[in-house]
Amino acid sequence: MFDNITATKSKSRRGASMAVSIFLHGSAIALALVLTYVKAHAPKQEAPVAVTFHAAPPPPPPPPPPPAGHKPKTPRTPKTPITPKVQHQIIAPKEIPKDEEKPPEVDEPEEDEGVEGGVEGGVVGGVVGGVVGGVIGGTGTRPVAGPVEFNEGQMTKPNLIGGPDIQYTDQALEHEIEGTLIVKCVVGLDGSIRNCRILKSVAFMDSAVVSALLHRRYTPATVQGKPIEVDYTFTIKLKLPQ
User: Fold this and answer.
1) Cα(2)–Cα(75) distance, rounded to whole angstroms?
2) CA atoms within 13 A on the CB side of 115
3) Which pTM does this prediction carry?
């Protein structure tokens, strides 16, 4: 009888111990699962970042004052270059307007008074100091180089062969200009005219007269029947057409 009671109590104790053990293991497993879940879904907190603020550097000190008696340099203003004045040259027109009215009267050259640079007893075309046995215009072995001053007493003057008449310009007609114009030109060996220089001017007519002379042709001046190149003076009297 006592053996049955003792066996029954032992079986009941073992059953209770087994149940407690199962409960404790289940609780431990459940607690581990809960902690794992919470840890996996808990929000993460970022570690704080340390920020350091630095103060701005102080401004540089002002420059020291100049020493006593020192004057600051003043920049020099560049000088404006002076533009030289340009003199305008009168250019003879290529074409002279034709005027059907009567051309002005032209007096062919008068004799020059003396020879520039001449000496008493000298002759035109001579050499400074003279040449023994020399003749006017040179000889076959010693020709005269370049034009010589015309001398009416010893040379034949050039005569007009052909060329345009001198025409009054519109300005000269408008201002009713008259007068005597003197111009010196070189008459070549072929009678052509070049290198004209105005000795006495007439308003509004210088270019017209020079242009007409340059387009004319003359017989050359001669000395003892031989042509010679001369510096010839033309005296032209200008009168308004009637």
Assistant:
1) 135
2) 20
3) 0.44
